[in-house]
# Entry
Amino acid sequence: MQTYQIILAGFGGQGILFAGKFLAYAGLIDDNEISWLPSYGPEMRGGTANCNVILSEEPVGSPIITEPNVLVAMNTPSFLKFENEVVPGGTIFVDSTLVDAPFSRKDVTYVAIPATGLANENGMAKLANIIITGRLLKEFKIFGQETLEASMKKCVPAKKAEMLELNLKALSIGLSYEG
# Structure
């Protein structure tokens, strides 16, 4: 496995921290070295939120990402803030429903998925985060299906057990997206 230094970013209420925790647990289940470092503004909903996730076979020296090779941007301000942080050769995933800024770099790969639109179309308005994370996982094939299901079971709290199947469906939408 290569080392993935992933920044997930958006606004509060989009599930950025949950998506990062889901990736970190998957890494933990697969015995990878991991780091999960959430960061959010003072507002509970609507403020900025981002999360650093490192997945590696090598020990992680610091949870702070200085050279991200993957960015997930779920809104325009997050895209504009982090686009130039991604190292050349990196990959930027954008929620094309909400990101309306032009792609300006030629040295990175852009992957656009209308995650919010797909979530709304499928009656899962709050799960665009898992759809775009599924698309990331499709691109890099980091984890097997069994690991992803185990991670989701770990991340969805017992008091919200009814959300497990919906989250797994959202993940499946992202994993199968062909855009």
